[in-house]
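FAQ: What does the model actually see?

It sees only this:
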Amino acid sequence: MVINMKICLILLACLVGFVLATNPGAQIRISQHGIQYAGNVLVQKLAEKFAGQPIPDINGKSGKVKYEFKNMRVTNFNPPQFTAKVNPGQGVSLTLSGATLSVHGDWRYKIKILFPISDSGSVDVSLYDVTITNSVVFGEAQGHPTVRSTGCSCNIGNVNIDIHSGLDWLYNLFKDYIEKKIESTLRDKLCELLDKEINEEAAQSLAELKMITKIGRMSQEDIMMNFSLVTAPIMGSQYVEAQMSGEIFMSKDTPGHSGLTPAPFQDTHDTTHMVNIWLSDFILDSFGFSLQKRSLLAYNFTKDDLKPKDQHFLDIQCDDSSLETKCVGSVVPKLRKIPKYANGSVVVGMWSTMVPRLNIRPGQLTGLFKGNMAFFVKPTPTADPEYVFTINVTASFLLQASMKGNFIHGKIARSRVRVDVIDSQIGPISDVGLQWIFNSINTMFIQDQLNKKGAEGVELPQIKNVVYVDPEFDLMANSLVVKANLLYNPPGK
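And it is asked to produce this:
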């Protein structure tokens, strides 16, 4: 029983903790419905594993009778009903009620009246209507969730002892005393073991959780995500909530280095789902900050990035008769007038000039990017590129989000772009032509690459052997909120 109670507490703390006072970048709320479901699942696991659990030996003396009960083990366990009550601002009360246990073991006694009498044999103990109540509080220490028991009580409705011995008539002389002693011993021992599992085992397991974890790698550096709690788990009315940093950063940085602050979350007021998960636009903004800091949002665009049928686009000379066959030289004809460039091709250096931003509003998801594109011409395939001009690009994207299974997917629906020449070695250049160049690069490469990443999707936070049932999402101010029920689905079932 105690082992599984530890699992219950760790799962509950992970749910409320996977979840420095600041606004959170991510938030997980478990409803009363979700907590109750988790408890019911774990009670079933308790029933499966409690059989065979050892019971501590009981030794004592009643008058002139010395007795000993040993080698006792649970032979049958009918699971109790589980009830969890969230106490706003305090903690969670866990109650296991109505359990029955059957215990088998050995016993012996020794009594001296006129002469010594001793006997031994087996014993069957039945405990009825067992109820255990424990109050648990969750906290936070250096970003880790903490847990401790604040009080345990155990009540055993009835104890029945069946002694198998030739002198069981003698046992009946002190039966009531023995039953009360066994009841008292088991009651105290159950609470002692439960408190130990909460205050030592479960607390240690939570302290060892990795609150900052690797989620990827880029440019020979690990990408990290900070799941550290920004405050102690919140005990609300009918829910438990954990608020986490949610920041993404590179491993050589320190958490909080971006200086960005998440906006407050709006409440969903959802009580029908087991879990609500808020994901702030701050999460990707913080990642963008790290990438911008390292100049990782830069790329050299060449013919190799295009499909064979589109590679003519970067040529100076091409067939100008249709949009499908036009090239850079078609809209920047000055390049064709430079003899050494006549048969050349273009290479484009692209880099961001500010941190990309994601903006989530009710029903709408948009992104903003600002950067420069420097154009170079390679007079021949083996020649070094020669700089010709640079344009500044401001692009805003309307994004579409969708869900499939446990993954959130994204896709660019449309974009709006402004292009300005900021430097030119060949004189004035038509803004209309440059707009067409960027739109072509965007369609053939940039948008295609971003949509591939969006198609891969981002997986929801995972809990071992638990799947999300019928997840759905809403776009709210500054956050995407996932709502779902949970299903326990262990291997082999």
